[in-house]
C-alpha cells in the first residue's frame, strides 16, 4: 500500500488545522507518497521557476532542484528532470500510452509496445526569461528535451493568456538501466491556482 510521509504539525493555535491540509497544501515537496507493491505513489515538485531544473530519481526516491547557469552541474544520478512543464531524461526513452490511469495500465498486464522516444537536443524549447514574451523576445538555453514526455501538458502560447491542456495520459519510461517507470501528471497547479506546482503519480519499478 502507499505510505504517506507525514511531518509534525505546528504547535499552538494552528494545530489540527495544519493536520487537515494535504501535503500539497503544506508545500511538502518530494516523494510525498511512496509506491510499494505497484501501488501508485505521488511526487510533488515546485516547477514554478523558469530558471530551474528539478531532477527526479526513482531509484533513491529523491528530488534535486538545480538552478540553470553556465556552469551548472547535473546530479550524479537521476532519471527524469522537469523545467516548468518541459522534460528531459538521463538516457531514457518514453512512450505516451492510451491509458488515463495507472490502474488501467496495470490491468493491461504488460509493458506497452510502441515507439519509445529518446531525448533530442534543442536550442529553442527551454525558456529561462519570459519577461519579453509580449514582444516576442524570449530567452532560451540549449538543452536535451524529451518531446514525448513533454506532451503531458500542452501550453498554447499563441494566445494570451495561454490555455493549459493536460493530456491526462500515462507515460512509460524505459530507464537506462533497463528498469521501467510509469508516470501521469495529475495536476499542474496548487490549490490557490498557482501554475507550476506539479503533482505526479508514478509507479516504479513497473513490473509484470
Can you give a write-up of this model?
With 208 residues, this protein is mainly beta. It is globular and about 50 Å long. Strand 6 and strand 7 (86-89) form a beta hairpin. The strands form 4 sheets. Strands 1-2-3-16-15-14-8-9 form an 8-stranded antiparallel beta sheet, with no helix packed on it. Strands 5-4-6-7 form a 4-stranded antiparallel beta sheet, with no helix packed on it. It has helices spanning 17-20, 102-108, and strands spanning 3-4, 30-34, 41-46, 52-57, 62-67, 80-83, 86-89, 93-96, 117-118, 120-132, 137-145, 153-155, 164-166, 170-174, 180-189, 195-203. The chain has 2 helices and 16 strands.
Present the secondary structure layout.
Layout: E1 3-4, H1 17-20, E2 30-34, E3 41-46, E4 52-57, E5 62-67, E6 80-83, E7 86-89, E8 93-96, H2 102-108, E9 117-118, E10 120-132, E11 137-145, E12 153-155, E13 164-166, E14 170-174, E15 180-189, E16 195-203
Antiparallel strand pairs: 1-2, 2-3, 3-16, 4-5, 4-6, 6-7, 8-9, 8-14, 10-11, 12-13, 14-15, 15-16
